[in-house]
Amino acid sequence: MAINKEKLISELLYKAVRSSGAGGQNVNKVSSKVVLSFDVKNSNALSELQKMLLEKNLASRLTNEQILILNCDEDRSQLKNKEIVTKRFLLIIEQGLHVPKNRKATKIPKSVIRKRIKDKKSVSEIKKNRKRPNLE
Predict the structure, then answer these.
(1) What is the pTM of this model?
(2) Measured distance CA(3)–CA(45) in Å, rounded
(3) How far apart are CA 35 and CA 110, in angstroms?
(4) Is the four-CA dihedral 119, 122, 124, 127 of positive or negative sign?
(5) C-alpha triplet 38, 67, 11: angle, nearest 5°
(6) Closest to 96 in 3D by CA, of 54, 40, 124
(7) What are 14's strand-pairing partners?
(8) Each residue of 29-56: pLDDT tens digit?
(9) CB distance 37 to 12 below 8 Å
């Protein structure tokens, strides 16, 4: 299923937040952490089938209101963090929309079954020959 990435990205909400953790004097002044939120239920870029797929496949990542929230505070730059979190979002959406192929059951060929039984018999013979001979 193809998705329109530009339309999806236009529906994203970004929020800059102060990053937690170590960072020196700058940490309390600069909002470099980016929080991305995407409303799956009210998205216009996705079809109903795609929304259902995402709700099923990303159930553990969505809030009760079907909103996907991602954070990024890997870089000092807010712009870089925004790029990283957007790439991560697109990857998650692609994985969520992936439909695995149905497995086709195959029949085991008779030659393979014959070979397995022949090998078992030969191993059995080898083990039988290891026993002490019965001298009675």
Answers:
(1) 0.69
(2) 8
(3) 59
(4) negative
(5) 20
(6) 54
(7) 36
(8) 778 889 999 998 888 888 899 889 888 9
(9) yes
